Every structure is written in C-alpha cells, then in structure tokens.
Amino acid sequence: MLSRSVASAVSQVSSSTSSLLPNSKQLFSFKTLSGYRSSSFCGGSIRKINHKPLRMTSSSMTPRAMASKQLENADQLIDSVETFIFDCDGVIWKGDKLIEGVPETLDMLRAKGKRLVFVTNNSTKSRKQYGKKFETLGLNVNEEEIFASSFAAAAYLQSINFPKDKKVYVIGEEGILKELELAGFQYLGGPDDGKKQIELKPGFLMEHEHDVGAVVVGFDRYFNYYKIQYGTLCIRENPGCLFIATNRDAVTHLTDAQEWAGGGSMVGALVGSTQREPLVVGKPSTFMMDYLADKFGIQKSQICMVGDRLDTDILFGQNGGCKTLLVLSGVTSISMLESPDNKIQPDFYTSKISDFLSPKAATV
Q1: For this UniProt entry, which segments traverse the membrane (predicted)?
Q2: Is 174 annotated in the active site?
C-alpha cells in the first residue's frame, strides 16, 4: 500500500498547479491529485489517504547547503545503507557503452546483500525495453528493479484514477506508449505524429480530440510543430486537461561522444505556448522515490541515491531524505560541483561507481 509520503508528494505538486486549471467543466475532479483513490497497478494497490494539503515552496525545495565530501571510505558508506538507487545514463552507461567497472561493482553490492534499484528519467523505453538493454550490456537486472519515467507517467495516472474513457496525448517515444498500454489507457500521438505537417494557409483551423484528458511530454526525437500545436490545444481548450512531464532534463547522453538536448527542451516548448507549468513525475519529483520505497518497504534513511546530475539525481535523493553520492562519470564535473554558483551539495562524491570496489575510494 502506498504511504502518506506518496500522497503528500502528489499533494505538493497538485496544490502548486491546481490554480492554473479551470474551476468548472472539468473532465474529472482535480481534487484526486491531492490523494489516492482505491486502485491497483503492477501488483501494488493504492488507496485514498486523507491528509492536509501541502504547498510546495521554494524553501521546502532548498537543497542542503553543506559542503560535500570526497568519498574516502567506500565500505563505510556501503555498510550504512541497505538499498542503492542508481541513475543509468552517466552512471551505468553512456549511450550504448557500459562505464568501466560497473558489472563488478553491482556484483559486489549484491554479494553484500544490498538491494539495487535503477531509476532513469529517460522515457524513450519501457521497463521491459530497459531490461533488454541491461541484458545486452551483460548486466543481470530484473524488470522489477527498473523505474523509468515512462512507467512513472502511467503509474501517476493510475494513482489518480484517470478515467479510462479519456485519452492521453503523447509527445514522446515508444516507452511511454507501451507503459500506458500496459496500464490500460487510451492514447494517441507519439512517434507517428512526427510525420505530420501543418499547411498554414488563410482560415486554417487545426482540429483536436476533445476527450484528451492528459498530455504527457517526454524526450522526443520526432518532435515537431504539429505536436506542439496539438498538445497546446488540448491543454488550453480541453477543460481539466493535465499537463504531465516525464522530466525536465536539459541535456541527455544519446551517445558517449557529447551531450544532447534533453526532454526539458520539449517540455519547455509546451510551457511557452500554454503558459502552464507541468506536473513532473520523474526526478527530482519524489513520486518515484515514494512509489519504490513503499513497493519494497524501504526506509528512506537506509537508501543511497547515486547519480551524475546535481539538479535531478542528487536533489531527488535529498528531497526523499536519502544519502546522496555524486559520480563524476556523467554530466557533472568537479568544477561544476565546486562552483560558487552551485547550491546543491551531495553527501559524497567520487569519480565513478567502481570506486566502491576499493575500501579507499579513488582520488578525483
């Protein structure tokens, strides 16, 4: 059963956005965003929980300002927690290339009885598809250990009892479509709309389906003006239509050669056209943290979040009350971490996760 922490997290998001929605003629009651109704998803049940709504403020989201420490005693950190949550891109792999020492590190942690969970903001694949990627890279990871933001979008809709007679318009790739289908939701859009064009001419009016109750935006290599306009019409003209983002990552690792524009660029286009802020279900929102903590019965103080991004991975762990370890194998460099402008400080940092293999972690 999902805990109060999950309901509280959703409440924070809903209270900060509900004022932006129409107060009448809604497709369904937006009040469902401040709690959970009875339903089930992927073997776990969700119940409505009565609680006092919380408003997300800048102070409640302020990360810890303490200076981070270089990881010097890996064994001490390993012994202090029972679960490690790993980001994938920049931590486990870059593009389709495995980062050095990852298999041995994961094997060692499993041998010590640690639970491993993999959380990614990349929504292009479903959990099943990510399972195949792990397998292709020679890693033995169970599908139940994988939490992608594509899954989080479907889980979120399920958690609020999104009406099954309403549709979801998807600006994103196959991963979102597959997870929505598994959850029993109707959808349209996705990669197919990447082929569509708009012929602008005098008097032209673009039609859209009025039974779309949610627009989900994720990373989309087939992004175009048609999708921007269609999503904008649904959000602005369909009463009560939800605007959900899988993540707002500025950049991502499509290859190991360079950084590429991330899902945040697609979300930003819809923010600009609708003047609405989305409900974010991926990191650093705590929705996935609360979901997996409840699913596995994990105490958050016994979790260490390992990631390469300060504003998503580390903030995700801090918002969830976990220990945090930054690895410098991905987006964040030591100069970025030590910059006077950086206000997000992890508990520890190190060069890569294979530093766990040595009691004395490698010097950065």
Answers
A1: none
A2: no
